[in-house]
Amino acid sequence: MSLPDNEECILVLQGGGALGAYQAGVFEALGAHYHQPTWLAGISIGAVNAALIAGNPSDRRVARLREFWELLSSSFQPPALATPANATARQALNESSAAQVLLFGVPGFFAPRFPPAPLQPRGTLEAISYYDTEPLRQTLERLVDFDRINSGAVRLSVGAVNIRTGNFEYFDSAKQRIDVRHIMASGALPPGFAPIEIDGEYYWDGGLVSNTPLQYVLDQPGKRRRVVFQVDLFAATGALPTTLAEVTEREKDIRFSSRTRLNTTMELNLQVIAQAAQRLIAKLPPGLRDDPDVRALSRVRTENAVEVVHLIYRSKHYESQSKDYEFSRVSMQEHWGAGRADMAHTLHDPRWIRRERSAGGVHVFDLTSDSPSNSSLA
User: According to the model, what pLDDT value does residue 106 have?
Assistant: First the structure.
C-alpha cells in the first residue's frame, strides 16, 4: 500500500530495554497492514530499533529486527513448565533470566567490565560504568547501514542528554550525519553504561530527561498530514501496589512513562490557540496588522492535521520490576507477539478505519485496551 503524497507516517519509539521487542512486533504489523514509516524517532532501545529499521531496505527490516532480538535473547532458553499459565514457574524464569543478565550481560549488547568499575583508574569511562557496550557497537555496525540512514530516504531522529549542560539534544538525519555513536549515546543509561563521546561532548541516555521523542516530532515544522504511531513501553496508569516488589515496578513505570496524553493535550491546545489567532488576524483592518503584537501572533505556527495512534505495552501479571532487563527468549517472543497483535487490532478497529481526515488539529487514538494481547493483565 502506497502512502499518500500529503501524508507522513511516523513511528515514535520509547525507551525500555528488553521490552523493546514489543516495538519490533508493532513495526511488523504496521508494515503489513498500513505503511512503512517515512520518519522514525527513538530514545534508548527505541533508537536502536529505529536505526535497525531506517538502516535497512524495506524488505529486510523485519528480518534484521528479528536477528537482533534473537541474538539478545539467545543465552537463556525457557524450561517447558515456564508458561504464562504457570505463573509461579514463569516468575522464577524471569527472575533467573534477569539475574543472569546482571551477572553476565547480554550477547551482542553489553558485558560486565573486568576488572569491575571500582578497580578501574579514576577519571576513566571504565570507572563510571558497570558494563562495556562495545558488543552493541559491533552489532549495530553489522546490522545497520548508516549510509542508507544518511541518504535521506527515511528520516531518523534520536535523543540523548549532554552531560556537561544537562540539556536534551536530538540527532536528526535531516539536519546532520548520523553514525553508530548517536544511537549508542541515546541508550547509554548510567551507571550501567558509559557515556558516549561525540565531537568533544559526552552523552547519556535520553530517558534521563524524556523517555519519548513525541514532543520533538510535534515541534518540527511540516506541511503534510502526520500520522504518528507512538509506542510506549511503560504504562503511566496503574493500580496501588500491594507489595514492596510491586512498589519498585510501579515507580519505574511512572518514572519512564512518556506522558503521551499530556503532550498531545498541550499540542491540541496550542493548535486551537494558533488557529484562533489566524482567524482573528484575518478579521483585523489592514491598519492593525502591522502592530507588533499582531505580528507576534501571526508567527504562532499552525500545522496540518496530526493523528497520534497510541500503543502501550501493558505488563503481564508475572512480570516484575526486572521486565526491562529480562532478556529470556520466551519473554522476547511474548513482547514481540503482543506488539504485533496490538498494532493489527488497532489498524482493523472500525474507529480507526472510519476516522474523519479533518483539515487540522490533533486527534488521538488509543484502541488497544480490548486487544487480545491484554487479556492476561494483572
Answer: 97
